[in-house]
C-alpha cells in the first residue's frame, strides 16, 4: 500500500486548504450570481480559430463588456425567477418542501457498497462555475443556454457563482476550451472557491478528464447534470429504474474518469506508484471488475423495465377497449404542464418552479363540457439536448404520448425563447414517433407573457390556445377546443337497460358514451346514446328498435 493511493489533483492537502480558504473568503464577499463576458477571447491564441473575429468588426459589440454584463447581472436565470405564487391547484407542497429539505443534505457517507451507487447519489454539487462554447455570432443563444444551465444547476441543489462563454469554431479535442481558456477558468474557480465546473455541452470522456486536470476541480457536463436531476426526482419504481439505466449507460464509457470515487472503491491497492496525472483512478483490473458489474446491473434493469411495461400496456389497452379518448400533455420543462393538468382536472399534482419537477407520468380523468370522458396525462418535461440515454430509457413513458389521441403541447409564453422550446420539444416527439398525433399549442402563462410574442406564435401555428393555468384565463376555451379535437363516439344506439342492471347506465355516464336522451320506462332506463365501436358490440343485448 502506497501513501499516494489517490492521485486526483484536488486531493492534495495544500489545494484543499486553499480551496476552503477561498470559499470562506468568497462567502464573506457574497457576490451575486453573474456571468461575465469573455472579453479577452480574441487575444487568446489557444482559443481563436475563428476568422470572423478578424473580418467582422460588428462582432465586437457582442463582446462589449457593458452589453454582456448588463444582461447577465440581473440575477439567476429567469426560469427560476423568485416566483413561488402557488395556487390551491398546485398539489402537494409538502412533497415540495420535503424534496428541498432532502436536497440540502450534505456529506454523503463514503462507505459505498456498490459501484452503481456512486452515480445514483447526488453529485454533491455545491458551488459551481458554468462554462460554455459557441460558434459564430449567436452570443445571445449561448447566453440563454447558459442561463438555462444555471437553472438546471440550481435545480440540482447547487449555488451558481459565475458563468463563462467562449466563442470558438470547434471544441478543443483535448480540453474542450483549449488550455489557455481552461487556465482562465481555473483562476476563476480558485478565486471564487468553486468545487465544480459545469460545461454546457456533452463532453467526450477524454475532454472531461483533460479539463479536470487543468481546473483541478470536478468537471461535469450538461448530460451528467440532467441525469443527476432526474435521479433526484424519480419517484416510481419504473422511473428510478429508467434513470439508473440512463446513468449507467452514460457512465460506462467514462468509468476511468470518475477518479476519486472509483479509487476510493478500489481501496489502496491500485493507482499507486507511477500513477501520474491522467492515469488516476482505479487500475485496469478494478475497472474491468466495475465494468462487468455495471453491465450485469444494466441487463437487470432492462429486464425489470421490460417487465413493468405489460402492466402499463394493459391499462392502455383497457382504455382503448373502452374507447376512452386520451390526451397527453407534453412540453418543455417548467412550461406549466402540471399546473395545467391540475386546472383541467382538479388533480393535485406537484407544481414546482424548478426544472423536471415531474418525472412520473400521472393520468387523470377529465370530461368535456358536454360530459364526454377522456384521460389526461402529465409527462416528463423536455429540454434542449435532452440526453439520448434518457430518451432511450424513458421511451416506454414517451410512447404514451405517441399513443394519445391528442397532444396538448404546453409552451411558456413568458419565456424569452418560446419558439426554440417548441422546436426542442418537437425534436423529441419526432424521435418517439409522436409527431403525427394532433396537437394543440397551449400558450401558457399568458398572465406574464408579452402579447406580441403570443401574436407571433399564433401566426405561425395553426392550432393555438392561449391560457393561464395560474389565473384560469382561457381554460374554458381550451376545454372546448379539447372537446372538439378528441375522437367522438360514432355509433348511435337505442338502449333499454333493466333497472336491475343500473351499473351499465353508470358506466355509460362514467365513460365514453355521449348520452343524448334518457327516459325511465316500466322495464328499465331507456337511453339514446352514441358510443364507440368497441362498446357498441358489448351493448348489443340492450339494443331496442327505434320507435
Ligand atoms: N405566471 C404564471 N406562472 C405559471 C403558470 N402556470 C404555471 N406557472 C408556474 O410555472 C412553474 C412551473 O409549473 P409546473 O406546472 O410545475 O411546470 P411543469 O411543466 O409541470 O414542469 P416540469 O414538471 O418541471 O417539467 C411553477 O412555478 C408555476 O407556478 C401561469 O399560467 N402563469
Ligand atoms: Mg410537472
UniProtKB/TrEMBL annotation:
<dbReference type="Pfam" id="PF01926">
    <property type="entry name" value="MMR_HSR1"/>
</dbReference>
<keyword id="KW-0460">Magnesium</keyword>
<dbReference type="InterPro" id="IPR030394">
    <property type="entry name" value="G_HFLX_dom"/>
</dbReference>
<comment type="function">
    <text>GTPase that associates with the 50S ribosomal subunit and may have a role during protein synthesis or ribosome biogenesis.</text>
</comment>
<dbReference type="InterPro" id="IPR025121">
    <property type="entry name" value="GTPase_HflX_N"/>
</dbReference>
<comment type="subunit">
    <text>Monomer. Associates with the 50S ribosomal subunit.</text>
</comment>
<dbReference type="InterPro" id="IPR016496">
    <property type="entry name" value="GTPase_HflX"/>
</dbReference>
<dbReference type="GO" id="GO:0005525">
    <property type="term" value="F:GTP binding"/>
</dbReference>
<dbReference type="GO" id="GO:0046872">
    <property type="term" value="F:metal ion binding"/>
</dbReference>
<dbReference type="Pfam" id="PF13167">
    <property type="entry name" value="GTP-bdg_N"/>
</dbReference>
<dbReference type="Pfam" id="PF16360">
    <property type="entry name" value="GTP-bdg_M"/>
</dbReference>
<protein>
    <recommendedName>
        <fullName>GTPase HflX</fullName>
    </recommendedName>
</protein>
<dbReference type="GO" id="GO:0003924">
    <property type="term" value="F:GTPase activity"/>
</dbReference>
<feature type="domain" description="Hflx-type G">
    <location>
        <begin position="325"/>
        <end position="490"/>
    </location>
</feature>
<dbReference type="InterPro" id="IPR032305">
    <property type="entry name" value="GTP-bd_M"/>
</dbReference>
<keyword id="KW-0342">GTP-binding</keyword>
<keyword id="KW-0547">Nucleotide-binding</keyword>
<feature type="region of interest" description="Disordered">
    <location>
        <begin position="24"/>
        <end position="92"/>
    </location>
</feature>
<dbReference type="InterPro" id="IPR042108">
    <property type="entry name" value="GTPase_HflX_N_sf"/>
</dbReference>
<keyword id="KW-0479">Metal-binding</keyword>
<dbReference type="GO" id="GO:0043022">
    <property type="term" value="F:ribosome binding"/>
</dbReference>
<dbReference type="GO" id="GO:0005737">
    <property type="term" value="C:cytoplasm"/>
</dbReference>
<feature type="compositionally biased region" description="Basic and acidic residues">
    <location>
        <begin position="80"/>
        <end position="92"/>
    </location>
</feature>
<dbReference type="InterPro" id="IPR006073">
    <property type="entry name" value="GTP-bd"/>
</dbReference>
<keyword id="KW-0963">Cytoplasm</keyword>
<feature type="compositionally biased region" description="Gly residues">
    <location>
        <begin position="268"/>
        <end position="281"/>
    </location>
</feature>
<dbReference type="InterPro" id="IPR027417">
    <property type="entry name" value="P-loop_NTPase"/>
</dbReference>
<comment type="similarity">
    <text>Belongs to the TRAFAC class OBG-HflX-like GTPase superfamily. HflX GTPase family.</text>
</comment>
<feature type="region of interest" description="Disordered">
    <location>
        <begin position="263"/>
        <end position="284"/>
    </location>
</feature>
Amino acid at each position: 500500500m502506497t501513501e499516494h493511493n489517490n492521485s486526483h489533483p484536488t486531493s492534495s492537502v495544500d489545494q484543499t486548504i486553499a480551496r476552503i480558504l477561498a470559499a470562506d473568503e468568497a462567502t464573506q464577499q457574497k457576490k451575486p450570481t453573474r456571468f461575465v463576458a469573455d472579453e479577452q477571447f480574441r487575444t487568446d491564441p489557444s482559443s481563436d480559430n475563428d476568422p470572423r473575429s478578424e473580418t467582422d468588426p460588428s462582432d465586437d459589440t457582442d463582446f462589449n463588456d457593458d452589453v454582456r454584463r448588463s444582461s447577465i447581472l440581473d440575477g439567476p436565470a429567469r426560469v427560476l425567477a423568485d416566483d413561488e405564487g402557488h395556487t390551491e391547484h398546485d398539489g402537494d407542497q409538502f412533497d415540495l418542501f420535503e424534496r428541498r429539505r432532502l436536497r440540502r443534505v450534505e456529506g454523503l457517507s463514503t462507505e459505498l457498497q456498490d459501484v452503481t451507487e456512486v452515480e445514483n447519489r447526488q453529485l454533491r454539487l455545491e458551488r459551481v462555475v458554468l462554462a460554455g462554447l459557441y460558434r459564430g455570432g449567436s452570443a445571445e443563444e449561448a447566453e440563454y443556454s447558459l442561463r438555462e444551465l444555471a437553472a438546471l444547476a440550481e435545480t440540482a441543489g447547487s449555488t451558481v457563482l459565475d458563468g463563462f462563454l467562449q466563442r470558438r469554431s470547434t471544441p478543443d479535442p483535448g480540453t474542450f476550451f483549449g488550455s489557455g481558456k481552461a487556465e482562465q477558468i481555473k483562476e476563476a474557480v480558485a478565486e471564487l472557491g468553486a468545487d465544480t465546473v459545469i460545461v454546457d455541452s456533452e463532453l467526450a470522456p477524454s475532454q472531461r478528464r483533460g479539463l479536470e486536470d487543468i481546473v483541478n476541480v470536478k468537471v461535469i457536463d450538461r448530460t451528467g447534470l440532467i441525469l443527476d436531476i432526474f435521479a433526484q426526482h424519480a419517484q416510481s419504481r419504473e422511473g428510478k429504474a429508467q434513470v439508473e439505466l440512463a446513468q449507467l449507460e452514460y457512465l460506462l464509457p467514462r468509468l476511468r474518469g470518475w477518479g476519486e470515487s472509483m479509487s476510493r472503491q478500489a481501496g489502496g491497492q491500485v493507482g499507486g506508484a507511477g500513477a501520474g496525472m491522467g492515469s488516476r483512478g482505479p487500475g485496469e483490473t478494478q475497472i474491468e471488475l466495475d465494468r462487468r458489474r455495471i453491465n450485469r446491473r444494466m441487463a437487470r434493469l432492462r429486464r425489470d423495465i421490460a417487465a413493468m411495461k405489460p402492466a402499463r400496456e394493459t391499462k392502455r389497452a383497457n382504455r382503448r377497449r373502452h374507447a376512452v379518448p386520451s390526451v397527453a400533455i407534453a412540453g418543455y420543462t417548467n412550461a406549466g404542464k402540471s399546473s395545467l393538468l391540475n386546472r383541467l382536472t382538479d388533480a393535485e399534482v406537484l407544481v414546482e418552479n424548478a426544472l423536471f419537477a415531474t418525472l412520473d407520468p400521472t393520468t387523470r380523468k377529465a370530461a368535456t363540457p358536454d360530459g364526454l370522458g377522456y384521460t389526461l396525462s402529465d409527462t416528463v418535461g423536455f429540454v434542449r439536448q435532452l440526453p439520448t440515454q434518457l430518451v432511450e430509457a424513458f421511451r416506454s413513458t414517451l410512447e404514451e404520448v405517441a399513443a394519445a389521441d391528442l397532444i396538448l403541447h404546453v409552451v411558456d409564453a413568458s419565456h424569452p425563447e418560446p419558439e426554440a422550446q417548441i422546436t426542442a420539444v418537437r425534436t423529441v416527439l419526432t424521435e418517439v414517433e409522436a409527431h403525427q398525433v394532433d396537437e394543440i399549442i397551449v400558450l401558457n402563462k399568458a398572465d406574464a407573457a408579452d402579447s406580441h410574442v403570443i401574436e407571433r406564435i399564433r401566426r405561425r401555428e395553426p392550432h393555438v390556445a392561449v391560457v393561464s393555468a395560474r389565473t384560469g384565463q382561457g381554460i374554458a376555451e381550451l376545454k372546448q377546443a379539447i372537446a372538439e379535437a378528441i375522437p367522438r363516439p360514432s355509433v348511435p344506439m337505442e338502449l333499454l337497460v333493466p333497472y336491475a342492471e343500473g351499473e351499465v347506465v353508470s358506466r355509460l355516464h362514467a365513460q365514453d358514451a355521449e348520452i343524448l336522451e334518457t327516459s325511465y320506462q316500466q322495464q328499465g332506463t331507456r337511453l339514446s346514446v352514441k358510443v364507440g365501436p368497441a362498446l357498441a358490440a358489448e351493448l348489443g343485448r340492450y339494443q331496442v328498435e327505434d320507435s
